[in-house]
Design goal:
Largest sheet: 4 strands, mixed
Strand order of the largest sheet: 2-1-3-4
Shape: rod-shaped
Radius of gyration: 48 Å
Number of helices: 6
Strand content: 5-15%
Helix content: over 70%
């Protein structure tokens, strides 16, 4: 029996040695695999962080560009509102000017608009009431210097300020509102240059 015990003991020792070798080899492979996985995770982490940083940077740039664009639009809108407000106030100022200044402006408009032929001038009812006594004579004198005649023909409910000049079937709208509308782009440029240059 001693021989069998020796064989069993030898097989057992050989099996233990072989098992120890297998375990040692498995532990080494596991350690290598663990190290390799750790390195791959580290590389992946760095790459993902770089991608995230790039995404964040692009998002910040896009947000900044959108904010800058919005600020420009707000500024341009405010600027346009200021220009329109200034033009509106200028029209109101002309309409509410003292009689001497107001009718002096009308005479300058007549100077520009009067022509040859028999002309008629239509004004607002309010202007007819406050018209200086020498206004009709001054308007007629201007028309005569251009080879025509001009008389105050009456009032028109469509007129708030300024006048309508009529030669036969041809009418020229010289109301302040019409003149401001006709010259709106020029007025915008003028106000823009005054406010921001």
């Amino acid at each position: 029996m001693a021989g069998i015990e020796k064989i069993i003991s030898s097989i057992k020792a050989s099996a233990e040695t072989k098992a120890a070798e297998i375990i040692s080899e498995a532990e080494a492979k596991a350690a290598d695999l663990l190290e390799k996985t750790r390195k791959e995770c580290l590389v992946y982490s760095v790459e993902e962080n770089a991608k995230s940083d790039k995404k964040i940077e692009l998002a910040v740039k896009r947000y900044n560009a959108q904010s800058e664009q919005a600020a420009k639009l707000i500024f341009l809108n405010a600027r346009q509102n200021m220009i329109e407000s200034t033009i509106t106030k200028a029209l109101e100022s002309l309409e509410k000017a003292p009689a001497e200044e107001y009718f002096g402006t009308l005479l300058k408009l007549i100077e520009k608009s009067a022509g040859k032929g028999d002309g008629e001038l239509f004004v607002s009812e309010e202007d007819m009431k406050r018209m200086p006594t020498d206004f009709a004579a001054e308007a007629a004198k201007i028309a005569a210097s251009k080879g025509g005649t001009l008389k105050i023909a009456g009032t028109s409910g469509d007129i708030k300020s300024g006048f309508i000049l009529k030669y036969g079937q041809i009418e020229e709208n010289c109301t302040f509102k019409a003149l401001f509308e006709e010259n709106h782009d020029k007025l915008q440029d003028i106000v823009n240059s005054i406010l921001w240059n």
